[in-house]
Amino acid sequence: MKPFGGPALFLDRSDINTDEIIPARYLTESTKEALKPHLLEDLDLPGFDAAVDLACMGVILTRANFGCGSSREHAPWALEVNGINAVIAESFARIFRQNMANGGLLAIELPKPTIEEIFTRFKGKTARVQIDLKASVVEITVDSSVATFPFRLSPFDRALVDAGGWVDFADARY
Amino acid sequence: MGKTRYQKIEESNQVELEGGKRALAVGLHIVHEVTSAQAFAALKKMGLRVKNPGQTFAVTDHVVHTGGSSAPNDLMDEALVKTLEDHCREFGITLYGQHNGKQGVCHVVAPEVGLTRPNSTVFCGDSHTSTHGAFGAIAAGIGTSNVRDILATGCLLNHVSPKQMKIEVNGKLAPWLSAKDLILYVLSRIGNEWATGGAVFFTGEAIRALSMEGRMTVCNMTIEMGGRFGYCDVDETTLAWFSKDRDFWRASELTEARRREWLSFNTDADAVFDKAVVFDASEIRQMVSFGLTLNEIAPVDGRTSRIADVVESRRHLEVAEGTAIDAIPIEHAFLGSCTNGRLGDFQAAARVVRLHGGRIKVKSALAVPGSIEVKRACEALGLHTILIQAGWEWREPGCSSCLAMNPDKFEGRVASSTNRNFPGRQGPQSRTFLMSPESVALSAMEGHAADLKAFYAKHGEPV
């Protein structure tokens, strides 16, 4: 199983939708790779510049209802080709969450107060996230201090993660 | 313990696959050009064929150029359409596309041709698939990997039973209001996450009083409250839809046995819901969205509240907190989409335009029928003439500026009969104000949203 984690990108807004994650005008692309330069291109967030801030990021930390809107699987594909392997949010839109699971990306929900605490303590700092699936904890490291936050995955979600995503899970079993 | 219509349909469509694995059988799988290409490619890579071509129906809609033959060509759009055409030919799938002059918005066309049926399951790689729940089907949007699964097996393999939810709207909707006002009002009360992942049963006197078109408008926007499925029970209004011949339905198929079977799946009085909310239709007003999410909706005589996260690049389109909704200048108008692109929507809009008698005050006004059938029906009634004479553009069917992944893009503030007001949704420099088709029509004629009740009263039209 691949490790989940990496440098943290803080997107401090609720309701970041799939049009913002990958604009509709790029849905005509036939390869996942072609989506790479356009991830979050239309996200207008104070202080955020997709062209600069996405480089080498591994994990997105955000607020509620991440991925609301369309069913385009291009949205998690655009995350994947940019090296984003996990998103930690207060909540996810249903289809987007399924689409993340299809490709083996990890969607972790944490309670609102925990998300609030994470943003208060770490936003604006250079933070690194490691997700320990065995212990079910998110570890956030800033400088040399580590903070841990427990999370829960359903057994089915966990099985998908172990298999590398729904597509691989289905190919092996159906 | 009673069951919901959703639960009865789910139960009757459970299948056991080899090795005892359970899955949900798919009655109708709709595919369109944008989210199917990679699914077909994956299928072919595995050396598989489409399992149930007869239950698969393809439409071109998202990238279609609605300007007709004079529209500029886009090679990537053309490639997507051609890829779908090739796949449909290869696997024997019926395609309603430009090649046979039948293209239209998938959620308008499939019900119109009689493919969407009560008690059935409908899936499509499009988030507004919940529209089909209006017919007492269970219907949901899926991603491309799951489109692949259904192409290969005829089943949704990773189905997980959703939470059961109920939205009840009692009482009567005022005559100048529409289904769009109803659903925008519900959203204004419960917000864009209330139903996340759930199966939402729409019921109550005000829902039952809606036409099938109105019910489609309501179920269509289930996704905007986070819901996966949205549906209504079957009644005489539903049955009337099937009492006429359609491309894939004969009126004679509506036998007494079938009526009884369809009705027997209606939600039991003692069905249990995980979540429920009740509204009174007498509280519903003419609603307009003013923000960038479906949480920001107000009555036409109301004012804007604070809008989260105003951004610099679109600040010129912003409206200040406390602005009267009917004082926001509107620069463009759009009629169409899977939410409000049907005959009744254009009838309502054209009526407002005819009563008004003037010309549009906006820079541009686009009327895009949801299907060829809708277009023909409008033209037979002369609705297109009313619109064109008032300065509207009358277009060919397609998704058009609902998501603007085609040449139909706006710059500025748009009164729109669509479903999403996300930043830049109708063009990079656009800002969307969602409302009913008749509100869009009046906004186009006045240059701002306006009170329909007062408008109808002024024109002495009984409503």
How would you describe this protein?
- The complex is a heterodimer of chains A (174) and B (463).
- With 174 residues, chain A is of the alpha/beta class.
- Chain A has helices at residues 18-21, 50-53, 74-81, 94-102, 112-122, 155-163, 166-173, and strands at 4-11, 59-62, 86-89, 106-109, 127-132, 137-142, 145-150.
- Chain A has a 7-stranded mixed sheet, with helices on both faces.
- In chain A, strand 5 and strand 6 form a beta hairpin.
- The longest helix of chain A is centred in the last third of the chain and has 11 residues, at 112-122.
- The radius of gyration of chain A is 15 Å and the shape is globular.
- Chain B is an alpha/beta fold and 463 residues long.
- Chain B contains 16 helices and 19 strands.
- In chain B, strands 5-4-3-6-7 form a 5-stranded parallel sheet, sandwiched between helices. Chain B has a 5-stranded parallel sheet with strand order 17-16-15-18-19. A 4-stranded parallel sheet of chain B has the order 11-10-9-12.
- In chain B, helix 2 (33-45) crosses helix 5, helix 12 (343-356) packs across helix 14 and helix 12 (343-356) runs parallel beside helix 15.
- Chain B is globular.
- The mean pLDDT of chain B is 95.
- Chains A and B meet through helix 4 and helix 7 of A and helix 2, helix 3 and helix 5 of B.
Short description:
With 174 residues, chain A is α/β, with parallel strands linked by helices. Chain A has helices at 18-21, 50-53, 74-81, 94-102, 112-122, 155-163, 166-173; strands spanning 4-11, 59-62, 86-89, 106-109, 127-132, 137-142, 145-150.
